[in-house]
Description:
The chain is α/β, with parallel strands linked by helices. The protein has helices spanning 11-15, 20-34, 52-67, 81-84, 88-101, 115-149, 178-190, 196-205, 219-227, 252-262, 329-341, 348-395, 401-424, 430-451, 455-465, 484-489; strands spanning 2-9, 37-45, 73-78, 104-107, 161-163, 172-174, 234-237, 240-243, 283-284, 291-299, 305-313, 326-328, 466-471, 476-480.
Amino acid sequence: MNVVIWARVSSREQREGYSIDAQLRATRDRAEKNGWTVVREFSVAESAKRGAERHAFNEMVAWVKANAKRENLRAILSHKLDRVCRNMRDAVRMQELEDKHGVSLAFVDNEFGPGPAGALSFNVMAAVAQYYSDNLRTEVLKGIDERSKQGWQHGLAPFGYLNVTEDRDEPIQPHPENAKAVVRLFELYASGDHTLESIGDTLADEGFAFRPSAPRFHRTAVSYILNNRFYIGEIRRGANLYQGRHQPLIDRSTFQTCQDRLQGKTRRTKAKVNLPLSGGLFTCNHCGAMITGERIKRKLKGGGVRLHDYYRCANNYPDSEHPSVRWRADDLEDAIVADLAKLRMTDDEVADWFRSSLQDAFSQIGDHQRNQRMALSKRRSELATMNNRLLNAFLAGSIDEPTFNAKLAALRDEAAQIEERLGNVATLEPPDVRAALAVFEFSQNVPDLWRGSKMLEKRRILETLSLNRMLGDVTLVLEKRKPFDELAKRLEMQLSRDDRI
């Protein structure tokens, strides 16, 4: 007798150690024992791909129908009934195969006799299989709902996050690189300078990739990310929203701004321009308006096109005294590098002296703090001793009660002051010293870092160094943060050999 083998394992069974190979061995042994010829084998693991089981099952049924007569098929051999029939509809399809094509079911573990009794047993087992499948689906959905209520996303985390299965306290965490792309995507769209298409171009220019197989952010991916409330810390399950326990990447104000733009409640301020230093990074030094980008296309005589990028004041209604604030992109880059170079000490010997002086200063501060704590701790011990002596004198009758109470109150007041001063004494740790030296090294290398960075890193360098960034008609103003503002002043300091810093 010629037979076809069908094997299936569920995701749960795979976790418990069952395998396709075990089912295939059992069915092959049964076929060999009975002298049956295996014409073809079909198998599927449900976790391989969503919907793969139904696709493979339908393929098996179609093949059996098409080849039953030519291959002289007489049975579909499986391990047991619930491997083939997960519900009554599957049972009906198997019965139709037997009625129309003469292909019945055979099993390793289940056997059904002929006649009405065998048919009844088959139908009961098929109903039980359907109950198991329906109940399993209900329990799975219940588990997903409960996990959502607890604040955790079921399944794969969206772009920008990682599934960390080994961390039970925080199983979903921000991706070290993709999270930056999500933040940048929302920044670009919230600025009003971009469409869904131009965001993909900008992210590609700044070195972000959606996935290895499709590096560019297409408008569908951009739209999905912009509409996903997971990035503000919420989890959607059907019509319900739950507060997630994962770390949000986007603040609600930025998210709502993007929603307003998606719904057409606000207009884009200009046409699509892919200029990385626009989008609110700079403001006009004359009117405070945002500096925006524009791209001019000029046709060449040979038929080509040359692109010219500019940054200009976005104020479309300037007053009569407002100058023309319009910078070529290359000129702005050069001006930024020149301004950053002001942080660098031109003499390497002076820079070494500054590093050494910085370390000595921190050492002196640390010594002073330690001496303060020692002196205050000593005085605290003295006050405790004086308090004990005062109590002993009172108990011995050497002083009266009013004197005792007055002295005790004075000691307690001073002790409270000592504790407060001890709490206010700062503690300079080695990481503080290393951080200060790292800031100095950063300031000395920042022009080179700027030249070697991608545009997103360049924006972050400017945001790290400066509080405000303004463009005039011919001037660039970068208001430095502390301590970079002090380094930028280039204070003149007299050395013993009359060198100047």
